[in-house]
Amino acid sequence: MTTTSSILPLDLRLRTLEARLFGVPPSLVDSTGTSSSSIRHQKNGLAGASDGRDGHESDARKGATRRMREIEDSFDRLAGQSDGLKRLLEGYEQYRALLALPTNQPSSSLSATAEGSDPHPHHSEGRTESATTSDFHESSSLSESDLLPDRVKLSMVLEAARDIRGAERDLREIDLLRKKGVEGSGSLEDLLPHRPLLIKAVKEAQTRSAELDRARRDVGQLLMRYNEFTNATSGLFVDIHHRLEYLEARVWALERKKKKELAERY
User: Fold this and answer.
1) How does 186-214 read in b/e, with b if 16+ C-beta sit within 10 Å?
2) Domain limits of the chain?
3) What are the GO BP annotations of this UniProt entry (predicted)?
């Protein structure tokens, strides 16, 4: 219901403009439907051309509304695909001032001035041209900020606040680097003659790094063997300790037995 009510005024305006440009179709003028057969026979020769022209006008009249609907549907599809176009369509009322050319004097007043009765037409043409030139200079002197209201400017600044903060941070970093004197190439040109030596030193460093890796692997393997040897030696000492304890216990038991036998004998 809302779509029909919003399209109906636009359709009526389009039909009115087409009626003014191309004329009213015969189907609307001949509303009573009473036309004599003699007039039909007299105009029978031009019937094909007039029917083709009326059909073309009706197609154009129908196509205008249909084109408007297709354009609206295409805008909806594009808005779904592009976030920027979606924001533009949603805030069209805010950005409409930027999309329209500034005019200080309406066209109707200019046409009335141009068509007014003047006994000296050449002077009137000169005044019209000078007025148009002055209006053009006044309109060109207007800036984009003059066309936007304050709330639109505020919303645009709030939307760009993150970018503004990022740009300010980048400018501060650039200023710090400039104060430290690290901008530009610096002493890079003085180091270019030492490039062969640098390449040779890099290759030597890579070779030494490979040797250090091999030595590190050898040391790691040696430490693993040392750990295994230490564990085996510790196990042997523990086994010897247990055997000595067993032997000491056996010797002590035999000595007690011998002392007991000697005591019983004497």
Assistant:
1) eeeeeeeeeeeeeeeeeeeeeeeeeeeee
2) 1-29+42-90, 149-181, 196-265
3) cytoskeleton-dependent cytokinesis
